[in-house]
Specification:
Elements: E1 3-5, E2 10-12, H1 16-24, E3 25-26, E4 28-31, E5 33-34, E6 43-44, H2 46-58, E7 62-64, H3 66-74, E8 83-89, H4 93-106, E9 111-114, H5 139-147, E10 151-154, H6 167-185, E11 191-193, H7 203-209, E12 214-220, E13 223-224, E14 232-236, H8 243-251
Parallel strand pairs: 4-8, 4-14, 5-6, 7-8, 8-9, 9-10, 11-12, 12-14
Antiparallel strand pairs: 1-2, 3-13
Helix pairs in contact: 2-4
Length: 257
């Protein structure tokens, strides 16, 4: 695949094999914070995010929700020719402030994984590690995103490590978080993301047994039809990624076997 970048355009010439791969794999981009001042940890600058999204648009990508990825890869629902899924873990207010307007200007929606005990609060789970505490969106903001076509998805109730919990407690954390999203935002919750990327050999089955259609991890790679729907990898976008690094992750690194 050849890609030429300039300030105004990006051309791609996919091979036949590349076209076939696009039908069975989707890049699911993983973000947390956008435009958090003075931070590098799990943060992408607001300008960098805007440039990344506009580049994707010029390259012919179309954004879909994580639920649409699951339906397309595993249930035969149609996907755009070149789909991309944009996900945000934890539901930070800076996503609403900086990322949502960019995506709205492109006519795109995204998926937010929300730990519901912290809605309207802050990410106090990071305090014990000495990391900055930032505000989490409230229900009004979350409902506003659903009105724009965004997907709200499960991230447990208390943002806990599921691999450390007994099955009954893990099941309750997953179920309570999803139910709170349904009640608080009127969301149709069908997907999930593991907090801290942690799970054990039983956790994916718990997710599916609760009626959820799929889940994503923090492992690096493309979401493929050959994967388990409850263990789909993502493409982590880092603070240091300018456009060349962003493209490297999207087009090369995440496609390596």
């Amino acid at each position: 695949m050849r890609c030429r970048i300039s300030s105004s355009r990006c051309r791609q010439t996919p091979s036949d094999a590349g076209r076939d791969a696009m039908k069975t794999s989707v890049p699911v981009l993983m973000y947390h914070k956008v435009g958090a001042e003075g931070q590098r940890f799990l943060n992408v600058g607001a300008r960098d995010f805007a440039r990344q999204m506009r580049l994707l648009k010029r390259m012919g990508y179309q954004a879909v929700t994580f639920a649409a990825v699951i339906q397309g890869l595993f249930h035969g629902e149609p996907l755009p020719y070149r789909p991309v899924c944009i996900t945000f873990d934890d539901g930070y207010c800076n996503v609403f402030d900086h990322a949502a307007p960019v995506l709205q200007s492109l006519g795109w929606a995204a998926t937010v994984f929300v730990p519901t005990a912290y809605v309207g609060g802050a990410n106090t789970w990071d305090r014990q590690e000495g990391k900055p505490v930032l505000p989490i969106m409230g229900w009004t903001q979350l409902r506003a995103l659903t009105d724009r076509g965004w997907e709200l998805a499960g991230h447990t109730h208390s943002h806990v490590r599921l691999d450390l919990l007994e099955d009954d407690l893990a099941r309750k954390e997953i179920a309570d978080g999803c139910e709170a999203l349904r009640e608080g935002a009127g969301a149709m919750v069908s997907t999930f993301c593991y907090p801290f990327g942690r799970y054990n050999e039983r956790t994916p089955r718990l997710v599916l047994d609760l009626g959820l259609q799929g889940a994503c991890t923090t492992r690096s790679g493309l979401a493929r039809a050959s994967s388990s729907p409850a263990l789909l990898p993502r493409v982590k976008i880092a603070y240091r990624d300018r456009l060349p690094g962003f493209l490297y992750r999207l087009l090369i690194r995440c496609r390596a076997p």
